[in-house]
Amino acid sequence: SLPSSTPSAAPCVATDKAQYCVGDAIPVSFNYEDPLTDDWIGIYPCDVPFYLHAIVWQWNCGSPGCRNTPPAKERGTLVFDELPPYNVVGPHSWPVQAGCHRAVYLRNDGPSVPPYIQVCESEIFDVVNC
Description:
Layout: E1 13-15, E2 19-21, E3 26-31, E4 39-45, E5 56-59, E6 75-80, E7 99-107, E8 117-121, E9 125-128
Parallel strand pairs: 2-9
Antiparallel strand pairs: 1-3, 3-6, 4-5, 4-7, 7-8, 7-9
């Protein structure tokens, strides 16, 4: 889903609830004043020690067509409600399964990624079987 505008007072990255059912859409808002065009947001289990492959992820601009096309998107909301076509390569999946998770704003930067550079992360949220 494409990002939508949000007020600039939002945290760097946040979900709109603390709990979702398996299969629910998960809106993730972001607000970061120094974005790069290839920044992205991924959903990860709470217990990962560093950020390799997200369960599901999206470019912060909302699609691969806007990656590397200035200007970078400073704020918006991405809705995780399906597996984006560019997630077919790698160990990505939808829906997010039951458990503790967090959304993480990451930078696709460095000489040898992954692990990816964490910019910020959301509070934890739970996905439960409803």
